[in-house]
Amino acid sequence: xxxxxxxxxxxxxxxxxxxxxxxxxxxxxxxxxxxxxxxxxxxxxxxxxxxxxxxxxxxxxxxxxxxxxxxxxxxxxxxxxxxxxxxxxxxxxxxxxxxxxxxxxxxxxxxxxxxxxxxxxxxxxxxxxxxxxxxxxxxxxxxxxxxxxxxxxxxxxxxxxxxxxxxxxxxxxxxxxxxxxxxxxxxxxxxxxxxxxxxxxxxxxxxxxxxxxxxxxxxxxxxxxxxxxxxxxxxxxxxxxxxxxxxxxxxxxxxxxxxxxxxxxxxxxx
Length: 270
Prior knowledge:
This protein is mainly α and 270 residues long. Helix content is 77%, strand content 0%. It has 9 helices and no strands.
């Protein structure tokens, strides 16, 4: 891209002022909602956090737009906007964690009760929220670029996204709604496919981070935990063949993990 003109710089600064004013207003509303919820009725707090997750995503979208305009009008990334976008989408995820827990590989019974307060939130509203979260993470990641020092920080963000997407789904109700007679069958199947994709992606990303970047055993263990969580999901949804196949993969990854740990211990002794 050629050198930015003064006209394009002026246009960008006007947009910055416009969007920052909107962001400040949205942030004030978000903080007001947080304050109200801290004093509110436990019965309504689930709905409150769900609204907050959407509110934080609205803020995220404006920070993403600021970076997009920066690149388009003056030819450089807006690192501050990207950092703020990352924080905002992180808040959105945290609000959902506060409803349904961040548990990765546990029986549904351990967080089932958390879903009671938001039972009337539709599949569509939940699905749309998580699609927006996924889109926002992808946009921020793309904004930073593949050579960014923040590249591997997105692994954890994608993992958290996978977990809350599954944990906000009532697995018992979803299993029933997979039936051909259910009017919710189509959306439930799409939701379930999305969960499978996210858990496998999280496992692969943690494994990739371990192999290419960190060489930390904890990252490899996290990869295996996500595979185990996916296998548990297959079992819950009655997909025995898929669960059995994944069990073999988990065994292979565990063998690799044990071999790598042994080699690291031997190298430390030298």
